[in-house]
Design a protein that fits this description.
- The chain is α+β, with helices and mostly antiparallel strands.
- The chain has one domain.
- It has four helices and seven strands; from the N terminus they run E-E-E-H-E-H-H-E-E-E-H.
- The strands form two sheets. It has a five-stranded antiparallel sheet with strand order 2-3-5-4-7. It has a two-stranded antiparallel ribbon with strand order 1-6.
- A hairpin with a 5-residue loop joins strand 2 and strand 3.
- The chain is globular.
Length: 200
């Protein structure tokens, strides 16, 4: 056990003034909002997926706000961020969970940069002037949407922040399995600071 230093988050949500932002729970993995899940060593993974136009800083602040809310609701005073990641993700329907999307920070595995999506695009069609409609001609004569049109459409890409936190209270902290000192936040102060900037 060693003493910890409380650090109040320095928050900046100035960009919120120009972009309408709603802080809310996500209805599913591939929707905007916050979600959380338990991970090893009694920690929680907290994610915030933004909407189009939200900055990396905004989604990171909203992830901290959700972490502060969870900490207070659990009767704790502070939370330590033991790992964090901000990435661009595509809001597409996929069979995956937060562990899969986190790029390994939830499981402790190494990973590359995650961008969401399958990384594959449909193969292009071949134009055939002798055939009307259908995906092979680029025409809409009652057939499928042309491949050329599908290739030009991409799902919306937004910023997502994922943090792994451990909660606690008092001046002592026991944080097993860490190689470096995490960032500590006073839950009530963080929540009050971020909410005040959201209301401006």
């Amino acid at each position: 056990m060693k003493p910890i230093l409380m650090i109040v988050a320095a928050c900046s949500l100035a960009a919120c003034a120009s972009t309408p932002v709603v802080y809310e729970a996500a209805t599913e993995l591939n929707s905007s909002g916050y979600m959380e899940m338990p991970v090893e060593n009694g920690r929680q993974a907290v994610a915030y997926t933004g909407t189009k136009g939200m900055s990396r800083e905004q989604v990171a602040q909203f992830a901290l706000l959700r972490a502060a809310e969870l900490t207070t609701a659990a009767g704790q005073e502070w939370f330590a961020v033991t790992d964090k990641k901000t990435q661009a993700v595509q809001l597409v329907k996929k069979q995956e969970d937060l562990k899969g999307r986190s790029g390994g920070i939830v499981t402790g595995e190494s990973s590359g940069t995650a961008t969401g999506g399958s990384g594959r695009s449909p193969s292009g069609g071949v134009s055939d002037g002798g055939t009307r409609g259908g995906p092979s001609t680029g025409g809409f004569g009652g057939g499928d949407v042309p491949y050329q049109v599908l290739e030009r459409w991409t799902p919306p890409t937004v910023h997502q922040a994922i943090i792994v936190i451990q909660m606690g209270k008092g001046t002592q902290a026991n944080l097993p399995g860490l190689d470096q000192t995490p960032e500590f936040y006073d839950a009530k102060a963080v929540a009050a600071d971020i909410r005040a900037k959201m209301s401006k």
